[in-house]
Specification:
Length: 223
């Protein structure tokens, strides 16, 4: 599915078209034991009847590979995706966003910068020593880690604002396949919606709107 939206339509605002705790990154890993279960799917269906989001659909722009449109809960949201677009053959470092359905597992937030998000998802204050392993040869590949960390990793406590709110997506988390991709998040976009390294990024107001309607079982679906 594609949406022919002009590049100029991308801005930092949510476009509404209708109205229809722990402190350690290691603890977040415990939330990842049974992603995508049948019980979670059943729960998502019942939540949807109460006005909670069951599915957040992401469609790649046909004109700009690194941009997309999110359709969820009766509104449309511009987003940035990987510089290589959406792929069914995700590999570590390819700059692509993986294709498929990924559950929203939990949320990190910067307590020194933003208020705790209102959401039904598990929420964790981000620590200064928070990292995420992206080394396919390490046993902690695609897991939250504490820094310093010897293997290759991404630092989650950033100087910019991209990780002020981070939603961990259930991609390659259950028994991670080395080299199949890591650190796939829903996070904050730059002001100009610059390409990501494979994540999906939205403006802060849009993120808060999505999180307010998200619960365990809510999935992000990239196509």
């Amino acid at each position: 599915m594609v949406y022919n939206v002009p590049v100029g339509a991308y801005d930092a605002n949510l476009v509404v078209i209708s109205e229809e705790s722990t402190e350690s990154g290691v603890d977040l890993n415990r939330q990842l034991a049974q992603p995508g279960s049948a019980a979670a799917a059943k729960q998502a269906q019942s939540m949807n009847r109460r006005g909670w989001l069951q599915r957040i659909a992401v469609a790649q722009s046909p004109t700009v590979k690194s941009r997309g449109i999110i359709c969820a809960g009766g509104f449309i949201i511009p987003c940035a995706i990987g510089r290589a677009g959406i792929t069914r053959q995700k590999r570590e470092g390819d700059g692509a966003t993986p294709c498929g359905r990924m559950a929203l597992v939990g949320v990190f937030y910067r307590p020194d910068r933003v208020r705790r998000p209102v959401t039904g998802l598990p929420v964790f204050p981000l620590r200064r020593d928070a990292g995420w392993c992206d080394d396919p040869t390490d046993r902690r590949y695609n897991r939250a880690v504490s820094l310093p960390f010897r293997a290759s990793h991404e630092r989650l406590w950033r100087t910019d604002n991209l990780y002020d709110l981070i939603v961990v997506l259930d991609y390659n988390l259950d028994h991670p396949r080395p080299g199949a991709g890591s650190a796939i998040f829903l996070h904050i976009a730059t002001a100009d919606f610059a390409p990501t390294e494979g994540c999906v990024a939205v403006a802060m107001p849009s993120m808060r709107r999505l999180l307010a309607q998200a619960r365990p079982g809510t999935c992000l679906d990239t196509r």
